[in-house]
Amino acid sequence: MLRKGLVIYAPKGRAGEYAPLAVNLYRGCGHGCEYCYGPASTFMDPKEFVNPTPRPGIIEKLQKDAPIAAKTYEGEDKTVLLCFTCDPYQSINEIHQLTRQAIHILHASGFAVNILTKGGSRAINDLRLLQDGDSFATTLTFLDREKSSLWEPGAAEPIERINTMKVAHAMGIKTWVSLEPVLEPSETLEIIRQTHTFVDLFKVGKLNHHPLAGEIDWHKFAKDSIIALEEYGCQYYLKNDLRRYL
């Protein structure tokens, strides 16, 4: 088992379907996504959450904890996701560069790195640090820039995220896309159509804890997404909360 009290931890519930291990480098996130679960999961006021700060002493703690975690973690998949309750390439990272430091530390302890970001091109300079076994991912909810700006005002525009994925794919880095939350099923299906040639894996979920979730036919979406993914020969994973609608 992973020793308790480390900054590297084993996510539970829906988060556990994304990665066996994770570390969060910042408190809060400046993307301001309307659907964000971060404030609730971190017990932060939403207004405080969108004014992020580095977690106090996070790099020093990671330097100390990573070798311990590497020795005590018994799972076969030693992949650490950056990050769940914040974005590793939100704009504040351009000042503090915590993500770059974390990648070096995790690699030095034998961990693979799994990047999940809506930061778009802010991640490009660090892609060359990724190695065999690492992966790079982005969340895509819309292709339409205006819709994205309403729901994800501080995140990179969809085209920028997509272009960054193309760069990663061209570099031989394993790529995946988080299709969660799903806000408009038709947009999600179109994302699959337009990105499947440079995405190695799609992880498909749904929308939770939002009134809009009750307006979507999740049974139909689950079936339609499988049809589209299999038509294009995509590797995919349907999260448990969506799979139960089949």
In short:
By secondary structure, the protein is of the alpha/beta class. 36% of the residues lie in helices and 14% in strands. The strands form two sheets. Strands 1-4-5-6-7-8-9 form a seven-stranded parallel sheet. The chain has a two-stranded antiparallel ribbon with strand order 2-3.
Structure commentary:
By secondary structure, the chain is of the alpha/beta class. The chain has one domain: Aldolase class I (TIM Barrel, Alpha-Beta Barrel). The protein has ten helices and nine strands. It has helices at residues 38-42, 46-49, 58-72, 93-96, 98-108, 145-151, 158-170, 185-195, 218-231, 240-243, and strands at 21-22, 26-27, 53-54, 79-82, 112-117, 135-139, 174-179, 201-204, 236-238. A seven-stranded parallel β-sheet has the order 1-4-5-6-7-8-9. The protein has a two-stranded antiparallel sheet with strand order 2-3. Helix 3 runs parallel beside helix 5. The two termini are 34 Å apart. The mean pLDDT is 95.
